[in-house]
Amino acid sequence: MASVAQLKLVGDALPEVVGVEALVPRQELPRYTLDSRVAPAAVRPGSIEEVSRVLSLASRLGAAVVPWGGGTRMALGNPPLRYDLALDLRRLNRIVEHQPQDLTVTVEAGVTLDMLQHHLAQQGQTLPLDPPFPSAATIGGTLAANASGPLRAGFGLPRDLVLGMKVVHADGTVSSGGGRVVKNVTGYDMPRLFIGSLGTLAVIVEVTLKVAPLPPAERTVVAAFPNSEGAGRAALALMGSGFSARAVELLDGLAWGSVSGTVKGLPRRDRTVYWLAVCLGGRPRAVERMEQGVAELCFRERAAEVEVVPEAEGKPLWRALADLGWEPSGLRLSLRACVLPSLLVGALQEVKEAGAKLGHGPAVAAHATHGVLRAFWYGEARTTWPAPWALPVIETLRERLQEMEGDLTVEKVPPEVRGQVDTWGDLGAALPIMRHLKARFDPRGILNSGRFARGV
Amino acid sequence: MDRRRLLRELQAAVGKRFVIHRPEDLLVFEVDGSVDRALPTLVVLPGSTQEVARVVRIARRYGVPVVPRGAGTGLSGGAVAVQGGILLSMNRLRRILAIDPENLLAVVEAGVVNIEVSYAAAKHGLCYAPDPSSQKACTIGGNVAENAGGPHCLAYGVTANHVLGLEVVLADGSIVWFGGRTRESIGYDLRGILVGSEGTLAVVTKAVLRLLPLPEAVNTLLAIFPEIDQAGNAVTAIIGRGIVPAALEMLDHLTIQAVEPAVHAGYPQDAGAVLLVEVAGLREAVAEEAEEVEAILRQCGATEVRSAEEPEARERLWAGRKGALGALGRLAPNYYLLDGVVPRTRILEALQRIRMVSQKHGLPIANVFHAGDGNLHPCVLFDERKPGELARAKEAGAETLRICVELGGTLSGEHGIGIEKQEYMSWVFSPADLAAMAALRPAFGAEGFLNPGKVFPTGASCGEVPQQAAMSRLGRDAYVESG
Predict the structure, then answer these.
(1) Number of CB pairs < 8 Å for A and B?
(2) Which ipTM did the prediction report?
(3) Which residues on B lie below 8 Å from A236 (Cβ)?
(4) Which of A161, A337, B21, B377 measures 20 to 30 Å from B158, CA to CA?
C-alpha cells in the first residue's frame, strides 16, 4: 500500500518529468475512477519519451500505475490491488506512417479506431478490427485487452493484424518487437506476449498493423430461424462453404430486439426467434453469388425468413452488433464462453439454463464461426441482482463449459460482488510461466497490480 | 558426465534401436539445410510425447542440452547441435490424429510432413495454407519453430495465423497444452510466443492447425518482362488496385537462365524477369481478378502473359518457380540461399543494391522470391573449391541482409535466425529489445538447455562464429523442392 507521503511524491514529481500539458488537474481525476477508486493522480504524456520518464519515476517510487485508453474495457479483470497513478495514453495519437502500397500502417497507441479507419479509408483501405465503441477505443487498449468484434470471422484476431510493436516497460525502458514487414521471424514474436496482457507486462505505445483494401462491394444477409439449432447449423455450413464471410453473428431474440430497436429497417419477429447476420464482401458479382448461396444455405436449415439488408442499414447494423452487450451502463452481468463452433449451440443452452437459475434470462450474441458466445444481462444499477447466493451458478457453468473443452470469462459483474466471482478460472500450466514473466518485466508490480488472472 | 550411463538410460526410455551413438551414424545428423554443421553427442528418436518427456527429463538430469529436429530441412542451422548434446529427432511422431471438417481443424503430431496435412484435408475439401517450398519434406514441428511461410501466405497468412494449440514438453519434462482446439485461451498468449521460437523455449509434440476450404477456382498467370523494373511495378500496381493474390512470385534474369534449360518452361533467355500471379476464390471473383491482373501485367510491359486454370496446366506454370533453386546447380557448384525481407515498395531498390553487392564480390546472385510480401531469397552462386569464394559468398550474404535492414525490412521472413544470423540481431534490435526477449527462456526454464546457442548473439566476434569450413553441396538443392 503506498503511503500518503509516496502519493504526494508522485504528484509532486510529475512536473519534473513531463510538460505542463501532461498534468491532469484535480477536478478531472474522477474520470479515471476504477472500481470506485478515484485516481489519486493522473498524467497524460504527449510522447513516448514522456511515457518512459513517467514510468521510470513511478518505478523508482513504487507507485502503482493503471494505463488508460478510451476506458471502454476497464471493467475487465480484478480490482487493482494498488492505484496511485492513472496513465492516460490518449495524447499519443499520431498516425506515424501509412504505406498504402505496402498495406501497413504505424500508429501511436492513443489513436482511436475511428480515427484510424477514417484515415485509411481515404486510401481505400481499412483495418479489419471492430471492437466496441471505436470512437473511444484506442489501438493500445484494444490490443492490451485483445478486444475484437464480428470481423474476426473473416480476418482473425487482433494478433493476426499486428506486425510490430513498441512498448515502455515498468522501469521506463523502451523496447520494440516484430517489425514493419508482413513476413517476419526475427527473434521472438514479442507483440504476442503484450497483446491480451491487459497492460500487466508493459505499456503499448506504438503499433504497426496490417491493413486490407476496402471491399469493392459489401452486402449483409440476415436470416431468422425458429430455434438455435438451425441458426447454429447454418453457421457451421457457412464455415465450410467457399463464401469467405467477413462476419457471422448469431443472436437470440432478446439480443436482436436490442439491435433492431436502434437500427431502422431490420426485420423483426418474436423473442423466440434466433438470428444469423452475415457480412459478405468482395467483387460485385462474387458478392451476388455469395448472397444467393448464403440464402440457400439458410433455407436449407429451415430459416423462416432471409433478407438482404439495404446498404444504408448495413453499416449501422454492424456498428450496433460490435457494440452490443458492451454498454457502459445498464449492464449488470456479462459472460463470455469459448467452445468449438460445433458445440456453440450446446454452450448456448448451458448459458440459458444458468440464466434461468439466476432468475433472469440473458441476451445472447455469438461470433458463431469462432465458437465465442456472449451472454449479457441488463438491469438497474440499484438492484441486488445477481444475488450473492446465486453466484456459484457461474462457477458451475464454467465447469460445464470446461467439460466441453471450452472456457468462461466473466466480463462484467456488479461491483458489490466483484471479489466473489472468479473472472478467468484456472490457468493451468501457464500460470508459473506467467508469474515468472510478470516478475521479470514488472518486478515491483506497478503495472495494473493484481488485475489479471490469478492476480498476476 | 557418464556417457555410458546416459546412453543406457536413453535406451531404456525409447528402446535401444532408437538411440544413435556410433560416430559414423551420428555424421548424418551433423547438418541440416544450412551451411553449419556440428556433431551431436547422441541422437534419440522418441516414438511418443511421453517418450519425448522422458528424454528431456533424463537430459536435464545430466545437464546435457537438447536440440529438437524435424526433417532437417531448415536453412538457418536450427537443427544443428552447435553445443553438442542430444539431437531429438521428432520423425517418429508422425500421426495425423484428427481431421475435423466441421470445425475446420486438424490435430497432428509434430513429425507430420507439411504436405501430408493438406493431402489428408483435401479428402474433405479442405487445405492447410502455409506451404513452404520444402513442404514435401519439412515437418509441422519445424514449421512452428520457424513460423514457416511459403508462396501462399500472402493471402492466407503464415504458420502463426494457423496454429490454434500446441502440446509441448517443457524443459522440466512436463507435458502441457497452450491453446487447444478453441479460438481463445485464458492468460498470456504463450502459444503465440512459441511459434517462431526456433525450438528454444519448449519441444512441440502436437499441434492443432486451422484448415481452410479449398478455393472453388484458381487461376495462375505467368508474365514475362524484358526488364525487372517492369515486373516490380506490376507487383505494386496489382496490390495498389486492392487485389491480394493468393501468390505472387518473381524470378530474375539469372534464375531464368538456369531454369529454362532445366525445366523447359518456355522462358526467353533474355527475359528480365518472370512474374507468377495466382488468384483464387469464387469462380466469379477469380474470372474478374484474372482479367484485371492480366491487364495490369500488360500495361506494365509484359511481352507475354500465359494463364491456366486446370491443375496440370497450373503445375507447368509453377514448374519454373519450383524448380528454380535446383536448377541453379547449372550455374555454379554451390549456392548460399538467403532469406531477407523488405517492404514491398522497396523491392526494386533492394534488387539494385544486391546487384552491386554481386559485382563487388565478383559472385553472381540470382533472385527468386515472394514478391507479394517483400520476402527475398537472393542466392549467392559460388564454387567452394576456389580459394576464398566461400568467405566471399558469406560476406556477400551478410551485405545483402544489411541492405534489407537498411531498407526498413528485417533479417528473416521465414527461415529463422538460428546460427546463420544470430550475430546480426543487433542490426535490427537494440540492447533493450534483446533484453526483453531474453526474459523468455528463463521463464520457460529453457536457458542453456533447449536448442542453446541459437537466435541470439553469442557475444563472440565475427571470426569466432562457429561456422564450419566446407559446404558439401555439389549443385543439389539446399533443401527439397517440390515438382
Answers:
(1) 244
(2) 0.95
(3) 102
(4) A337
